[in-house]
Design a protein that fits this description.
Blueprint: H1 9-17, H2 20-35, E1 41-45, H3 51-57, E2 64-68, H4 72-81, H5 88-92, E3 94-97, E4 109-114, H6 125-138, E5 139-151, E6 159-164, E7 168-178, E8 183-192, E9 197-207, H7 211-220, E10 225-233, E11 239-246, E12 255-262
Parallel strand pairs: 1-2, 1-4, 2-3, 4-5
Antiparallel strand pairs: 5-12, 6-7, 7-8, 8-9, 10-11, 10-12
Length: 263
């Protein structure tokens, strides 16, 4: 008789949403394109279960990571489930900090990153600029700040997308959108085969920031240059997962991009 794995929302979040190995390869490639040398230290802000930090360290002996999050629940899940992917030496190269990303005592790094749009929790320009400014002060001279962003007409109104995986379905629901404030509410739901739909496993109250807004705030926070890496599309118009530095992004229903800021 097949044993049913106990349900845990962080397990399914990683399977549905994250691609840590692809993320760290992208970070490394972009860093080398600017500085002609490999990076060493990654600081992963809003790290959650810090799977990106673990993937970073697994790239080689020289890589070190700092994982930062204020919420102990995902951190504890990562300690239980992701640390086992590292050997004793690798574990020494990972620093886990349960702290607010605005804490001025956070250490610096070659790359500071935010994934899965987590900085959208900052809903006012002043708040976001404060965070960007603190990051700028902590980046090494030859450093990069890398964040992702998303948008498009599909993110400006209620909708729900269902993605069928092998043994579960992932639902991304946008509940509402306020065109005056650009605030929106999103939910993630999961449904395992043969089981009920588990509603609101993750809830996000976000400000949808546009790329021009983000570039302006990053520059006002002291970054010298900001580049946009736009996701390339195939002939059908679907995203390929390949991101290239661009100055033009075509109109589309849904887009994902990275912003790469230099100190």
């Amino acid at each position: 008789m097949k044993t049913v794995q106990p349900y845990n929302k962080y397990f399914y979040y990683k399977k549905a949403v994250q691609s840590p190995e692809e993320d760290v390869r992208f970070f490394k490639k972009v860093y080398k394109s600017f500085y002609k040398k490999p990076p060493v230290t990654l600081r992963e802000d809003f790290c959650g279960t810090f799977s990106i930090s673990v993937a970073w360290i697994k790239m080689g002996k020289t890589y070190k990571a700092i994982a930062v999050d204020a919420d102990k629940k995902p951190l504890n899940y990562g300690k239980t489930h992701h640390l086992s992917c590292l050997d004793k030496t690798q574990k020494k190269d990972l620093t886990i900090l349960q702290k607010n990303v605005l804490n001025p005592s956070l250490p610096g790094a070659d790359i500071i990153s935010v994934s899965n749009f987590s900085y959208y929790v900052f809903k006012e320009r002043k708040q976001l600029m404060e965070y960007f400014g603190k990051v700028r002060k902590k980046l090494k001279k030859s450093g990069l700040f890398i964040i992702d962003a998303f948008g498009g007409s599909d993110s400006e109104g209620p909708n729900e997308e269902a993605v069928e995986e092998k043994d579960f379905t992932y639902y991304w629901e946008q509940k509402n959108f306020n065109s005056i404030t650009n605030r929106a509410t999103f939910y993630i739901h999961f449904k395992r085969k043969g089981e009920r739909k588990r509603l609101k496993q993750f809830t996000y109250d976000w400000r949808m920031w546009s790329l021009p807004e983000l570039k302006d705030i990053l520059e006002d926070a002291g970054f010298s240059k900001v580049h946009v890496y736009w996701e390339m599309s195939d002939k059908k118009g679907d995203g390929t997962g390949v991101f290239r530095k661009q100055t033009y992004g075509e109109p589309c229903d849904s887009w994902v991009a990275y912003l790469v800021a230099l100190p």
